[in-house]
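FORM 7B: Structural annotation worksheet

SECTION A. Query
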Amino acid sequence: MIDIAKKEIWYVTGSQHLYGEETLRQVASNSQQIVKGLNASSHIPVSIVFKPTVKTPDEITNVCQEANAEKNCIGIITWMHTFSPAKMWIRGLSILNKPICHLHTQFNAEIPWATIDMDFMNLNQSAHGDREFGFIMSRMRIKRKIVVGHWESENVHKKIGNWSRVVLGWDELQNLKVARIGDNMREVAVTEGDKVEAQIRFGFSVNGYDSSDIIKHLHKVTDKELNDLLAVYETSYRLTPSLLKGGAQRQSLVDAAKIELGLRAFLEEGGFKAFTDTFENLGNLKQLPGIATQRLMADGYGFGGEGDWKTAAMVRALKVMNYGLEGGTSFMEDYTYHFTPEKSFVLGSHMLEICPSISDGKPSCEVHPLGIGGKEDPARLVFNVGSGKAINVSLVDVGNRFRLLVNEVEAIKPMANLPKLPVARVLWDAKPNLEVAATAWILAGGAHHTVYSQAITTEFMEDFADIAGIELLVIDDKTSIRDFKDKINANEAYYNMFQHRL
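SECTION B. Predicted structure
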């Protein structure tokens, strides 16, 4: 479901012919050694591919054209080992459409005090070569990731690794197909938006389908497929007694399994890796997909409730970024508050669709009434979410641009058991506190739907916003409402002024 095996990032070193062949051979050798070191790092999930040193405008343009054309190349890392006059880069950078990480490093870690001479100085000029390169990217208004430090340091590896994960997510969006099963929940504003502009900005497409497109796949489900999936349910989750064979609610679980098999077949046939549904548009589906959606998300699919295609796409992007990391990522919603004089918290949940990748322990499989939608009682996985740091992410369309909103949170253990709450849930402390966080979120127009991630941090989202060329607003320990208002106002002026260049 998530395959990154063939993805690669090209390592491009800049220099010039001024230094002679011996120096250029050393530049290439050093770069190859750096690439080897980066590929040995456990923090970097994709292959770093060495490219020959570029020394002329034509060589630079050629490697940028090749990067654009190579499907598996998802980005480039640049480094100026020596001085590389930046006007040489203008033509290549002007056509490059892949994300850039500017690694500001040098081959040696320390100055060799006893032996340093001008030959050494001419070879190791990244301290000012990278500044020349940085100027031209700033002059051209090119957003990029800048990583500073020695290439062997773990901190550098982590930063490059995090950026490469963001690039994987961005690459995923370029070809992502989102299936909107049914329409938007009626009269809801924030889950709407400009799907055409989203495809222009992010790459992913959103198209509508009917529940009948799922139903036709349900009719093809075989008894063996159904029994095999029910066996998976029985071993993977704690089924309530009424869902066991012969139980009073067993048929509800059978219907849920059929829906999962049909929905999965529909998504696979259409090449969709994200989807939405809504309880108002279920057609002949017997129940709202609960366990089906939860399990599909656990497998890497993006999801948004009530037609929320923006959140569905972002869940998929963060799932790809999350691949191989500890902690999970899920569709989420701010549902209700816990106000006390000492401290206030948010209970996050949804009707059914919280991903078990964030579960704290083995989920319970249960059937309960939904209360809305007029359908049969749906099966769902019920669990608490583990404590620890996380973020909530919301992508919203504010009319003249897309805004990415991030709130850093700390999940905590619920103060008591929740025996009558038949849905997955997580209790969190919103940073800096609920009063400021909720005020800032509402001021920014943040959605009630979010992507909740235990593995992805604000740094990832900052890199993503730079790559996408969209606005980023962060709510964290340092947020004050006065400063947050000023930033919103400044951003409004900035994006209105420079929209044509973004």
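SECTION C. Observations
Residues 193 and 397 are 6 Å apart (CA to CA). The first strand starts at residue 8 and ends at 14.

SECTION D. Sign-off
Analyst initials: ____
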